[in-house]
Fold each of these.
Amino acid sequence: MMDNAIFAVGSLIVLAGAVGVVATRSTVYAAMSLVATLFGMAILFLTLQADFLAAVQVIVYAGAVVVLFLFVIMLVGIDRLENLRTDPLIGQRWLGLGAAIVVAAGLLFAVLKGTITGAESSTAKPNGRSENVIDISKVLFTDYLFAFEITSLLLVIGVVGAVALARRRPRSEAELVDGDEPVVTFVDEADETDETDSDEAIEEHA
Amino acid sequence: MMLLATVGPEAYLGVSAILFAIGVGGLLLRRNPIVMFMCIELMLNAANLAFITFAHELDDIGGQVSVFFVLVVAAAEVVVGLGILVAIMRRRPDATADDLDVLKG
């Protein structure tokens, strides 16, 4: 009975947070809803005896990732309200909603009609054991060692890429004009149909 | 183990499916690039929940290790993606996803 209550609370937090991410107009509120979803997910992880991943979920996701989101929101100053009523592509709202409902129906069909099959575990059986971290690390550093080492390469690439993207390149005037040209023509073309007046003004000054 | 005796894996997988669909819907409906990014995170989390549910149901630690790798990849993806967003937003602060159809900077 207690377990049911924990599951109900956790999944309620997860789904309410997810709806908040999608439905709120303010980007900051969306980030806060994302925190709720990630915390609820950590609760569900705990009920499934994934202790280590619950802790990592809170530290990495709710800690690092959402802080990064908020930092970018504040840095580029797009924390203004978005009008959710405008429908720039005709029918995008209904097509998108329909696609989401189709995805939900397909996944729920697979969940409810499917049966869970699987081979006997060859590595470690986590259920009912308290040494979750030990189990994970043993498997991680034996069977998945190559993948683990490759993720370090991925992280290095990510860091280098982020630095290269965020750095302001010192460019000469001629290069600047050349680089700007495609964007300027794009704005001119779109000018008749789209309301990108502010964009255009920025491009003109750049 | 005791928990799944009462709730059952279908409930967890149902939450995962609904969460994934919410993420898909948000990605298709919203035009703010940062919110679209958050919706991708929702979908990744839905996949993680399914992984851990199966890890528990099949009593196999491999699902939890997979989630570990998904977390690493998601962190790297967020760093690079937000870097790209900052680079775009610095030049065009009002850009929505519909405006970004020119790949050349």
Amino acid sequence: MKKYFKILFLPILSIGLFSIVYTQNISPKLGLDLQGGISVILTAEEGTDQELIEQAVEIMRTRIEAFGDVQEPEIAISGENSVLVQLPGVTDQEKAIEALGTTGLLTFRPVLDSSLTTGYSPALSLVVNPDDPEDVTTVVKPGVTGVDDVIGISLDDNPEFESYILSVNSGYPVVYQLGPAELTGNDISDAIAVFPENEWIVSLEFKDSSAEKFTELTKKLANENGEKRKLAIVLDGEVVSAPGIAFDVDPSVGITGGTAAISMGNADGGEAANNLAIILRYGALPVSFERSSIEKVSATLGEDTLNLGLQAGLIGLIIVSVYLILYYRILGLIAIAGLSSFGLLFYSVISLLGEYQGFTLTLSGIAGIIVSIGLAADSYIVTFEKFKDEIKIGRSFNFAADKAASDAWKTILTADFVSLSAATLLYVLAIGPIRGFALALGVATIFDLMFTRLYTRNSVPAVSGISSNSRLFFPIKTKDLVND
Amino acid sequence: MIKKLFLGSTEINFLNVGKVFYRVFIVEVAIFIAVLTMSLIGVLNVNLSVDFTGGTTYQIEAEYTDIDIEQVMSSNILDVSRYQTFENSNSIIFRATENTQDKETEFLYYLSNKFDIADENIDFQRVGPTFGDEITAKGLQALVIFLTLVVLLISYRYEFKYSLIALVALTHDLFLVFSLYVLLGLEITPSTVIALLTILGYSLYDTVILFDKLNDSIKTSKFSYLSIDSLNKTFNEVLMRSLNTSITSAIPIASILFLGNYLGLSGTLSDFALPLFIGILSGTYSSIFVTVPFLAKIINK
């Protein structure tokens, strides 16, 4: 009785789990490569503080959530200084990159001059042809380097140096000449858009440690007039806004208390104010990242690959089954029942892991599963071959089956231990796609051990009692088998 | 013959087999070293995927003519280094070397216009050269730790000498796949690297099962050490299992390859399946024909 319980335990468990999964309509959570979407790997400079990267990930999460329209985004630290962003289901590349896009640096830079006073880039000067007063050309001012000589904007924007930046944020193009960055997004603790009376205001709060820096900066600016009184908020080399310091700020005191208010007018019902507040709050990540990899998979390719994997798996399973039946007869049936139950259990566990643990099945995971079919089938082959060897030396079917099953367990334990340690190692050390593969292989190996110990170990002796006609077990006559 | 093979009563003298295959092994090693040196000094081209070299790939599905492809190849937006088409489908893959993000997007729109397909239907992949390096570095790290564990485990369970033989068999499989890839000019992708790691697992699994069997034979024989009898008994008996195992393991993988080829799908799954397929065959071969010569040498001593 106990023996039958052991034999049936795993098949019943797998059927039970599968029916739960089936009736609850739970299916494996598909990875990006199987359902389409975008995957971006962002890499920070080597040696970046882990804490900063964690902060960046938090900010990206909030930003993607605020963006909406992205189902189940996954943003995770991968490796030492990389962030893996996976946006499944998103096939509109531009949109997704926009959602992540403003990964750059937010800086506060004093305005030194702008095209609002001159009408053209402050980096340029006009040269009038003395013979023809209408023939006016622009040349780059002496001492200015690294700017385009027609429109006069910096080719490369480095926030540590003076640069000329084009902005179209006010609806018309303005070229600002900006000084080096004085503060960064890292100095801000909060920003919100408010509507106290008559107009929208972005209320800005600096971190305690940065409040003093801001006061010093505003003291300096309050001394100036015109464009030089402005402080540009620059995100990713683009001037988002360039508010001027109010005229009632005392140059000897500056703006104190670590707070500032940016007047935004009332024209658009607060949209501009809200956008600016969001940029100030989440806009800048504390570190700058480089996109070291972008992968975009269209939904159709994902589907094709999934189908290919499933069909290949199924065809493989059928051919292996036919082969096992032809070769091992009744034992083959045992193996097929075991493998099917192995498959059901695997499917159910992966579905459940996806539902409750967020485990996603990727392409490499499918590859791992297909590989594990081979490994699982091998465990049966090892057992059956040992069985054959025992019968060959004249043992009774019952004894042979028992001995083969217990010997095979030891062999498979060693071999599976190797597989399992390989899978664990791969999982711990690897990044990205290798992990999915390692996990699938590891889970499959554990299942294989369970099946060998409980199912195979007990079912092979059980069937061997049916008959001692070797025709039922092998494609060969008893006489030939034993006489040899 | 088949009956004998089935019964494991073939009477092959593996001591002689060992001598023959030792020579085969030496020839193989010579080829491996030649391929390795030639690819290191650049005579042979190692076809590394965009993941290692950095760059972009675009995969589209559209009606096309040879002229279309020529035009794309000579378009000046990106440096398109290679393209790939498939017999049974309308897929085309273009590969370009690294460039700025703007240029890459421009090329995307160019393709979308040219082949009259929506740009969201173009599969686009961009990688910096570091990504592939990282995978390789992690892979190598895993490899070294794994091999050390293998040596310890096999030495503990069987004998230290056996662990060295297992290492030789493993290395043989790795080099065989690598050499084939280089000689046939096949593209090496991160999936290939993963597959190589899996091959190690397979090959080792095979070798461990064999050593286990060998151990059994030694226990039941009249000697307490490895003798010609137990060597021959083991390998004659194990031939069929090895054959069966590699057949059942290779079938699912072969079905990925053939089905993928039939449907005109190339991609990660096939990238993965090919080296695995070669590796399984090689693993089965090495677990017998690379281990036997060395076991024979132990006996001769």
